[in-house]
């Protein structure tokens, strides 16, 4: 069960604080990779990851890799604490009502339900954050506009920052505009979190020696990394669709919805487009998730130890 590393009595109120600590460990090196990954998925003219990195650096310097990161950095702790908290507490709620003990070992079906609930909840917070980030990153990408039969390339800035981006979207598209791409995000995150928490749980059990009450820090790190690589790698096809839907609308509206985006992308670029950035997804998923799970477990252990000293 998630949170068993500490080997002590559960204290649900510590889940969010420990998640806050863990996400800072997992987010530090993510910004540059995330920017390149988004541009590969939704942008045009990048042959591969290295070409994308060099092009962004040449045109926008180092600052280009951190474009649109202020809003995610301000909200990622809340997002991840909610996701980890919802999964952990849903898992305990199911075990309490099914087995009469919230610390009872979870069956696969219990883990699936808890992961799906976490996936649905994550969309409510994550969709607006991703939308603003992607819009800010993609606003300087050239697009083709037809004017009087002539095709010209424009490279204009549509938003001055996160607040201006949100207000512009609300003014032009309404509240529904803030959740553009939510359908694709549900299709990404619900199975994605199943392939995130379930492998982590089973790998931790597998790595834990007989007679040990909880996995070691190294086991947590490896299990978390493998789970992250699996989850982000398999989520790539729907992540491409989500990124394209959310990038759409900066200057033009190209897609009518998830099905239309899939159809147009396949027709114009073939099946390979849905696996664009899969390698970088899996590579960045390992260290980021390893740090997040280890940070979660270690911070949870520390917080519970402090609470035990205060309230023996």
From TrEMBL:
GO MF, one example: transmembrane transporter activity
Solcar repeat segments: 17-93, 106-206, 215-302
Protein name per the record: Solute carrier family 25 member 48
PROSITE patterns per UniProt: SOLCAR
Keywords noted in UniProt: Membrane, Mitochondrion, Mitochondrion inner membrane, Repeat, Transmembrane, Transmembrane helix, Transport
UniProt family annotation: Belongs to the mitochondrial carrier (TC 2.A.29) family.
InterPro entries: MCP_dom_sf (IPR023395), MCP_transmembrane (IPR018108), Mitochondrial_Carrier (IPR050567)
Family matches, as Gene3D superfamilies: Mitochondrial carrier domain (1.50.40.10)
Subcellular localization: Mitochondrion inner membrane
GO cellular component entries: mitochondrial inner membrane
Membrane-related topology note: Multi-pass membrane protein
